UniProtKB/TrEMBL annotation:
Keyword DNA repair carried by entry: no
Family annotation (InterPro entries): SDH (IPR005631), SDH_sf (IPR036714)
Keywords: Chaperone
Protein name in the entry: FAD assembly factor SdhE
Domain of life assignment: Bacteria
Length: 87
């Protein structure tokens, strides 16, 4: 369990999006990468979680283009979707 209250809050929000698909993509991304994030990357992720689930899933699936404001290394990692466990 993470002892950092900010990261516990972020993890909860990442895994409780409102749709199961977004839970797996956003929550899985958090679980895979959060341990190495810088303060700037944490800030990016917190802002990213404010976006609508439909937009996030659309970006992940490539059905809608990623807005310029979200493009960069964090989005590149997110779009790989290699952190989503399919069982």
């Amino acid at each position: 369990m993470n002892d950092n209250p900010q990261m516990r809050r972020i993890q909860f929000r990442a895994w409780h999006r409102g749709t199961r698909e977004a839970d797996y993509t956003v929550g899985g991304f958090f679980d895979q990468y959060h341990a190495t994030w810088t303060a700037e990357e944490i800030d990016w992720f917190e802002r990213f979680m404010e976006e609508q689930d439909a937009d996030i899933i659309g970006w992940a699936l490539g059905t809608i283009p990623v807005p310029e404001e979200w493009k960069g290394p964090m989005m590149d990692k997110f779009l790989k979707l290699d952190f989503v466990k399919i069982v």
